[in-house]
Design brief:
6-stranded parallel beta sheet; 15 helices; Alpha-Beta Plaits; alpha/beta; binds NADPH dihydro-nicotinamide-adenine-dinucleotide phosphate; 6-stranded mixed beta sheet; Dihydrodipicolinate Reductase, domain 2; binds the ligand N[C@@H](CC=O)C(=O)O
Length: 426
């Protein structure tokens, strides 16, 4: 027996077009294997007459009115893939208030208003799913929800912005920042306005969502204070690569006792570490946990098809719940309140790249009491840099300072606090 679910969608851009394309291709398979027919009743867009790369199924209504979709009584499930915060929130609230299930890819909204929307969904007995909001095609939220129930996550470390990773990979092979960004935009990886991608804000939003799922801890953007990739040049990326490091925009959270340590920043990852080998639009999330140890989840982090696949998987779970009359908010862990500290407040080893003579760096190292090793012309490894020393160094020498992955002295950190040390390798 096949049951039809009436679906409405907001947005028909990169992700929305992918949803239509995947839905059309896999309709027969979905019907055969799941007994569900997903009928795309209506799609809302901003510019009704703009040219489209995808053809809507016969009978699907195209409208420029969001209300026309979210208030359509027949529609049981709304897919929000238009982006924006205020407008999307209003539309999702309206859909939930009418008892519709909602699937969204909107990390900006879920990071900032997730708990509020989840509470409304719970009150209304509706599903609210957002797998595509973190790491595009990688089913990381469902994995954290389903596969770590009896486990205890200690650390999450990931490359979770496809645009930045695409750009850094291209820059390491010599492409300019501008060329790399233009290609990321043309391929649909970047946001409509790419500021959040290159400023680390998109990765920070995704880390905020991961933190809920991994630890039950709410994080705010100011707590993370992300550093993006706008200050990096192709020559810095290339010099690091030639000397054994790949610069990656890493998003990290680690728990040590009652403390949670976080970072979103470019980090020099030694080439023998798996995260250094994640290139282009690929994303990766390394999860360190008590029972499993380290697991690495990789896949495309952006782009039409992969993101649409995550959206459609959510749609199918919600559709099954609608059919069975069973609704459940599969969501983050019980909330906790940990003390949040940024990695950059802790002493660690940095890669220093810039046009500075070794004598000048050594002189300054003696003055400010840290140790330095010359790696190559204009490339130094600087050990024991506290936040204060780093600030002074930056003010005095034209070096781009990039933390080296895995160089925080956690033993010292935990000795100085009441927390207990955990041996976290990532
Ligand atoms: N691109 C990607 O790889 C990924 C994107 N996401 C998220 O998915 C969402 C969509 O991204 P993406 O597809 O790239 O965005 P696009 O900019 O490609 O598409 C946005 C779509 O939404 C429509 N839209 C915008 N505002 C309105 C409005 N007020 N009313 C009706 N329609 C509107 C636009 O209409 P029109 O076409 O007429 O202008 C367009 O069709 C975002 O939240 C993004 O962060 C998540 C994971 C990956
Ligand atoms: N702009 C984002 C899209 C997916 O979330 C990215 O580049 O990762």
């Amino acid at each position: 027996m096949t049951t039809t679910i009436e679906v409405g969608m907001l947005g028909l851009g990169t992700v929305g077009s992918g949803v239509v394309e995947r839905l059309t291709r896999s309709a027969a398979k979905i019907e055969q294997t799941q007994g569900i027919r997903l009928h795309l009743a209506a799609v809302a867009v901003n510019h009704l007459n703009a040219p489209r790369t995808v053809q809507l199924p016969i009978g699907t209504r195209l409208t420029d009115s969001l209300t026309n979709v979210v208030c359509d009584r027949k529609i049981q499930l709304v897919i929000e893939v238009m982006g924006t915060v205020a407008t999307a929130k209003k539309a999702i609230v309206a859909a939930l208030n009418q008892g519709k299930a909602v699937v969204t890819a909107n990390k900006d909204l879920i990071a900032t208003a997730g708990p509020e929307l989840a509470a409304l969904a719970k009150k209304q007995g509706c599903d609210l799913f957002y797998e595509a909001s973190v790491a595009g095609g990688i089913p990381i939220l469902r994995t954290l929800t389903d596969s770590y129930v009896t486990d205890n996550v200690q650390a999450v470390s990931g490359i979770i912005n496809g645009t930045a990773n695409y750009m850094l990979s291209a820059m390491a092979t010599g492409q300019s920042y501008e060329q790399a960004l233009a290609t990321a935009q043309a391929t649909g990886y970047a946001e409509a306005d790419p500021t959040n991608d290159v400023a680390g804000i998109d990765a920070a939003y995704k880390l905020m969502i991961l933190s809920r799922f991994a630890f039950g801890q709410e994080l705010s953007l100011p707590q993370i204070a992300p550093t993006g990739i706008t200050h990096l040049s192709a020559s810095v990326c290339r010099l690091a690569a030639e000397n054994g490091w790949q610069i990656k925009l890493l998003a990290q959270i680690q728990r040590h006792g009652s403390g949670l340590y976080c970072r979103v920043a470019p980090v020099a990852v030694p080439v023998d570490q798996p995260l250094s080998q994640i290139n282009g639009v690929q994303n990766a999330v390394a999860v360190q946990s008590e029972a499993i140890g380290t697991s690495l989840y990789t896949g495309p982090g952006a782009g039409s098809t992969a993101t649409a696949n995550s959206v459609l998987n959510d749609v199918l779970v919600a559709a099954k719940h609608l059919i069975n009359g069973y609704r459940m908010i599969r969501n983050q862990k019980r909330s906790v309140s940990l003390t949040v500290t940024r990695f950059d407040q802790l002493p660690q080893t940095y890669l220093g790249i810039g046009p500075v003579a070794p004598e000048a760096v050594k002189y300054y190292a003696n003055e400010a009491d840290f140790s330095v090793k010359t790696i190559a012309d204009d490339c130094y490894q600087i050990t024991g840099l506290s936040a204060v020393k780093r600030k002074k160094l930056r003010a005095n020498l034209p070096l781009t300072l990039i933390p080296i992955a895995g160089t925080t002295d956690w033993k010292q950190v935990t000795e100085n606090s009441i927390t207990s040390p955990i041996n976290v390798a990532i």
